[in-house]
Predict the structure of YCII-related domain-containing protein.
Amino acid sequence: MKYMMFVCTDTEPDTDPSPEADIEVWVEENDTRGRRLDGSVLGSRSSATTVRVRNGQLLVSDGPFAETKEFIVGYDLLECADLDEAIEVARAHPMARGGRLELRPLVDL
């Protein structure tokens, strides 16, 4: 099953002083195992453009639309047997401690 994992900042990161995992090691391990199909860091939120259509009018604004202190900073597309495996993959990601990871299954249309 495919999962989109959104990598987000968090206003309350983990306070455990032990060293965080190396992201390059996480990427290599999951690429080698075929669990990570794609992934990237996103450009800064100041480079975001929000597009909406309301009453037939195109509305384009600079920046993210969300009024929040947490932001999506990257993503990984995962291929896992089930949600339990996706959770284990996310658990080992360095941003699980410094931020938050949101897993969503992809739906075939």
Observations:
- The chain is about 20% helix and 40% strand.
- The first helix runs from residue 23 to 32.
- The CA atoms of residues 29 and 70 lie 27 Å apart.
